Amino acid sequence: MDDLEWQSRSLGGYPPVLVNMLVEQGHVEQLVRAASRGAWFCARAAARELCKTAEFERALGVLEPFVELGWEPARWAAAEIVLQTGRVQEALDGVRPDDAESASEHVSRDFAELLVKAGQVDEAITVLTPHLDEGWLLSALVELTEGQNRDERVLELLAPKAERARSARGEERWHLDASNAQDLQAQVLERAGRVDEAIRVLGADIAAGRFLVQNTLTAYAELLQRNGRMDELRELGLGEHAHVGLPYYARALEDRGQADEAEAVLRRFIVADEWDRLRWPLIELLGRQDRIEEAVEVGRPTFDHHDACLLESVIHLLAEAGRFEDALAVLDERDADFIDEHPSWFHTNRIAVLGEAGRYEEALAYAETLPSDLYGLASSTAWVLEQSGRIEEALGLLRADAAADAWEAAALLVRHGRADEAIDSMPSIADLRAASRWG
C-alpha cells in the first residue's frame, strides 16, 4: 500500500508519460505485464484499453490484486467496468457509501460521477448537495450535469452560493471556498441558452466589485469573447481590469481582422503602465504575423527579471519558428551571474537548441564541457544522441547516470519499437521507490 501511495503521490514508478506512450502504440500486453508487478498507472490504463475491446472480465482481473489490497482507486475503477457490463446495481452497491450524508467529499464526488454514468443524475445531485460549500465540488456539480437537462436545478443550487460570493468582499471574507460560484452560475446560464442574462449578471458583479478572485474576471472575459460581445469586451479590456481583459479584447480584434488596432492598444498599455504581463499577448500576435524580430524585442526587457520573465517563452517561440541561431544568440547574451543562478536551465536549453538545429556534434561537444553532475545533463545529452541515431549510446548514458529515472531509458526503448525490452528492464516498484528523490 505504501508503494501505491508513493506512485500516486509522486507519479513514480511507471509515470503517466511512459504509460501514455505504451497506450498510443497499442502495447496492452506490456501494460498488463507491468500491472502484475504492481505498477498502478499501467493497471489502470490496461483495464481501460481492455474495456475498449469488450474484455471486461480480463480488465477486472488486472485490477483484482489492487482491489484485494484495499486500494480505493482500483475499487472505483472496477465499479466503472462492472457498470459497463450492464450490472448497474452491482456497480453502485460495490462503492455506495454507508452514509451519504457523512461521506467524504472525494467519495461523494466519485459516487456522483458513477451515478451520472448509470443515468441516475438526480441522485448524483443529491449526493453532491451537502458538499457545495466547497468550490471544487461546486465545479463537479456543473461538470457532471452538463448535457443532462438539469440546468434549472443546478441554477437553484448555485444561486445562494453566488450570493455569498457577491457579499464576501464587503464582509471581508477573503477565503470563501466557493469563490467560483459566480463564474459557474454564468457558465450554466450560458449553456442553458440564457447568454444575455449570464453577461448581465456577471458584468454587474464585476462593475460593482462584488467578486473575490481574478478567475471571475477571466471567466467574464472568456464569456464575452465566446459570444462576440465586443462592446462589453472593449469596456473590460480598456478599463480598470485591463490587466486581465485586454489580452482577450486584443485577440478578439485580431480575429476580426483588426490586428493593427490590437497591436496598438497592447503597445499603448505596455508603455503607459509598464505591464510586463501584457507583453506576451503582443509577442504571440507578432509571432502569428511572422514578425519574430519584433516579438523578441518586446520580450527582451523581461529577460533578467525574476518575475514575469519571458526568456524561456521567447526561446521556444524562436525554436518553433526554426530560428535556432537567433535562439542561441539570445541565450548567449546572458551574463555570468545569470548562468551561475540558473546553470541547469541555461545549459540544458542550449544543448536542446543545438540539437533541434541538427547540430548534434556541436551539442555533444558542448555537453562534454559541463560538470558531469549538472542536473538534467544526462537526459539532454541522451536526447541528442537519440536524435542523431546513436540509440545504444543514449541508453548506456541514461542507465549509467544515477540522477536519471529508469523510465527514461524505458521510454527510449518504446519509441524505438522495443516495448518488451522496456518492460523487462524496469526495476521493481520497491527498487524504483528506493531510488527516487521523492520516496
Care to describe what's here?
With 439 residues, this protein is mainly alpha-helical. It has a domain at 334-420. 70% of the residues lie in helices and 0% in strands. It contains 29 helices and no strands. It has helices at residues 2-10, 16-24, 28-35, 40-52, 56-69, 72-84, 88-95, 105-117, 121-128, 135-144, 151-168, 181-191, 195-207, 214-226, 230-238, 242-255, 259-273, 279-288, 292-299, 311-320, 324-332, 336-341, 343-356, 360-368, 377-387, 391-400, 406-415, 419-425, 429-435. The longest helix is centred in the middle third of the chain and has 18 residues, at 151-168. The protein is flat, with a radius of gyration of 26 Å. The protein starts with a helix and ends with a helix.
Quick summary of this structure?
The chain is mostly helical. The protein has 29 helices and no strands. The protein has a domain at 334-420.
